[in-house]
Automatic annotation (TrEMBL):
Residue windows of the CXXCXGXG motif repeats: 150-157, 167-174, 193-200, 207-214
Organism (species): Clostridium saccharobutylicum
Pfam families tied to this protein: DnaJ (PF00226), DnaJ_C (PF01556), DnaJ_CXXCXGXG (PF00684)
Family matches, as SMART domains: DnaJ
Protein name in the entry: Chaperone protein DnaJ
Binding site for Zn(2+) 1: 150, 153, 207, 210
Gene (UniProt): dnaJ_4
Cofactor note (record): Binds 2 Zn(2+) ions per monomer.
Annotated compartments: Cytoplasm
Binding site for Zn(2+) 2: 167, 170, 193, 196
Family from the record: Belongs to the DnaJ family.
Length: 377
């Protein structure tokens, strides 16, 4: 720690108050405590650093010396005379025992939660719909495999008629206190009771159906009412349809993720749909009535004379219904004017006549060349 900034180690600015130093130390000590980071040497070193910094900054005399001369005044040992942390066994937690107790052991509330009711896990299912099913809604039946309370023992894990006793080792808490000696001193932590597995109870005769687990794996068919307007990426939560809880805990939820296959006719963007309508040059110039496919069926639409290729027309309310709403999106029709790739003589003459009638010169047109067949002489 020589030449290091003790304030920086605790995440503070120089001149921080005693309360600020104490709060910063508590927060970091909890985060990097060895019992929460077992096997993590980096966390252990960090824990040593924050304790060294706190030992200096929490002592008014040492803090004054540090503010004047820096960490060099403590020969890199936080004021322990070069002994490092060898003499740390008798370290007084400075009134922070309650903090470590709540996180690392002894807390009655934590023990009670461990062997109390546990909510079941959530599960997820992906369902694939056609474009039409998504647009109009559909009822589907899906098959999910989940953990359920054993029907034989009703989730107790004990064979019906057998007795269940309080675990003699942990006294029903589901946890046992373990005292460990570390380079930083003696710490008391808690671990799951190995005799009852954390349940706090010993079963005289485990259930023969679930082998004492209380839960079994079951496959269930569930009906899902999918509303109109869903789209790829939407997720439907089905409350209480997930895995069953333990020891009377509530069941989890089932999340149905929607995937929609693209339509061969329509392109969907949100609740709006898009479609292309092809017409000839003559119809685009003279105007015409076309039949347009919509999600609700075919409709007639009048294309005005002089419509250019790429023009977009809007059919209000002809899109996809908004989920759980009476409103609908719109449909957009893009007009594409088809230019013929080949012309017969009659069509060619008609176009020349059109050019002359429009005041255009036919000489600007690329001459039409007929293909020659046979061998040249």
């Amino acid at each position: 720690m020589a030449n290091k900034d003790y304030y920086e180690v605790l995440g503070l600015q120089k001149g921080a108050s005693d309360d600020e130093i104490k709060r910063a130390f508590r927060k970091l000590a909890v985060k990097y405590h060895p019992d929460r980071n077992q096997g993590n040497t980096e966390a252990e070193e960090k824990f040593k650093e924050i304790n060294e910094a706190y030992q200096v900054l929490s002592d008014p005399e040492k803090k004054s010396r540090y503010d004047q001369f820096g960490s060099a005044a403590f020969d890199g040992s936080g004021g322990f005379g070069g002994g490092g942390f060898g003499g740390f066994d008798g370290f007084d937690m400075g009134g922070f025992g309650d903090i470590f107790e709540s996180f690392f052991g002894g807390g009655g509330g934590s023990s009670r939660r461990r062997n109390g009711p546990v909510r079941g896990n959530d599960i997820e299912y992906t369902i694939t719909l056609t474009f039409e099913e998504a647009a109009f809604g559909v009822e589907k039946e899906i098959s999910v495999t989940r953990s359920e309370n054993c029907e034989h023992c009703h989730g107790s894990g004990a064979e019906p008629g057998s007795s269940v006793k309080t675990c003699p080792k942990c006294g029903g808490s589901g946890q046992v206190r373990v005292q460990r000696q570390t380079p930083l001193g003696n710490f008391v932590s808690t671990s799951t009771c190995d005799q009852c597995g954390g349940s706090g109870k010993i079963t005289e005769k485990p259930c023969t159906a679930c082998r004492g687990n209380g839960n079994t794996r079951k496959t269930r068919n569930i009906k899902v009412n999918i509303p109109a307007g869903v789209d790829t990426g939407n997720v439907m939560p089905l409350r209480g349809q997930g895995e069953h809880g333990l020891r009377g805990g509530s069941p989890g939820d089932l999340y149905v993720r929607i995937n929609v296959t693209p339509s061969k006719v329509f392109t969907r963007k949100g609740n709006d749909v898009y479609i292309d309508a092809h017409i000839s040059m003559a119809k685009a110039a003279l105007g015409t009535e076309i039949t347009v496919a919509t999600v609700d069926g075919n409709v007639k639409y009048t294309v005005p004379a002089g419509t250019q290729s790429g023009t977009m027309f809007r059919l209000k309310g002809k899109g996809i219904q908004r989920v759980n709403s009476s409103g609908k999106g719109d449909q957009y029709v893009k007009v594409i004017v088809d230019i013929p790739k080949t012309l017969n003589e009659r069509q060619r003459k008609a176009l020349y006549d059109l050019m002359e009638a429009s005041g255009e010169s036919s000489g600007d047109v690329t001459p039409h060349k007929k293909k020659l067949f046979g061998k040249s002489k």
